[in-house]
Amino acid sequence: MKGMRLVLALLALSLGGCGDGSVQSPDFTSGLVGLKIDPASVPQATVALGDSVQFRALGTFSLPPGTSPSTNDTEERPVDAEWSVSPTTRATITGTGLASTLSQGNVLVSATVSGATAQAEFTIGAPVLRDIVIQPSSANIPLGGSQTFTALGIYSNSSSPQPLDVPATWTSGNTSVVTVTPATGTSTSATAIAQGSTTVTATVVSNGQTLTEVVPVTVVNAALTGILSVEPPTAAVVAGASTVFTAVGSFSDGSTATLPDSSINWTVTDDLDTGDVATLTNGADETPGVTATGNVAGVATVTATLKDSVASSTTNRSASAELTVSGTLCTQNLRASQGATVGTDISGLCIGCLVDDEVNIIDNDDTNFAGVLVPVGLLGAGVSVTATAADSVTFEPGKRAGFIIGRPGSELLSLEALSALDVTTLLDGQVVESSSALIPLRLTLLGQVIIGTQGAILSIPTTQPYDAVRLSFSSGLASALTRTNVFNACAVVEEEPAAMRSQTLMRAN
Fold first, then answer.
1. pTM of the prediction?
2. Measured between alpha carbons, how far is 20 from 64 in angstroms, rounded to an integer?
């Protein structure tokens, strides 16, 4: 009897260790009794185009009787499902339930497990602005110039910048360096006011969020905008003489300046279509200007063009000037080889007055000269040089007579600067006509007669025969002339063409 009780007790303990003391069937199988999708609906039922939504399938399974304290005897847990979306033109979904949006509209999501299907819906709305960028991301603006900045958006449906659908507000970090106009819009123009560094900021408010982007800006030296002109715009020389042309550039700050030859290609054409009227000689690369030398009578066009390597902000990359070349105006020189002689005279108390190499005035070399210096002296003092033709040679009136003179370097060559000079014609040693006696004195600019020396013909008209010409340099208490070079004595001077620059002075008697 005791043995039977022990067996029954052990059996009771064995059954009591399962299911909280309840009695369960040893062959029970749990089954799927329900299926749903989480989330069943997306918050606000809207997803921005380009965003993704993670779904999961939750299965409800039956439990053995007595397993759960609840009356349902079921539990809910995630399950693997077969996922699909409709329509597939609006979204795709992965095997793990991650839905990606393709286009706006309503989408139905389905999950299938063991023949059971659950569904959920969501709506794809317009793309949402996530961030902004400014293009360009930095800028060096030349003084006086401007730079356009554009704000672009990074939207939920694209990783690359797109045009904004809302305006930006633009500000400058330092308005004394850069100003921005307009202050509102998708783009603005930043204008450089002064050299320095600052920032340009774009601010956008969209969907309740404020987005800001900042770019650095540096204002640098003014930039070349183009060639404004070639100076002088017109010039005239005699054959054998030369003049200098320079190219003038315009800059972003409104200034102008002479451009170095390293920036310029110089070319010359002419009305003869031969290229023989004038030739060009460049100086050093950083020396502004080109020397144009007249060869034969004609009109040449001298053109300056920016080199391809030189940037400019406009299409004004070239400009031209006109050079008129005339035949020699001094058609009959007084030459020693033809029997001419030269003499000098210093009159009065002319302190430091001198004439050197006077024979150069009548030699056959037109590039050398006599030097005449008349510093300070008493009234009535001065220096003169007289070139006389060979015996029995007399020149008929009706033309002009004078001298080719020059001033060294960049000294001014004008009648005002040479007001102490006079030209006189003589016959048998006697004065015939003179610019000091109501005869008009004319200064005709020739250009550079030799490198570094501007040349001119100083002449008077003749109405009576003559056989000599004299150039006089008068001194005075206020006179302080620098050196004057005398190249040639011209017994006959032709009238210059209209293109040549000349000045006429009538002395008071």
1. 0.52
2. 12
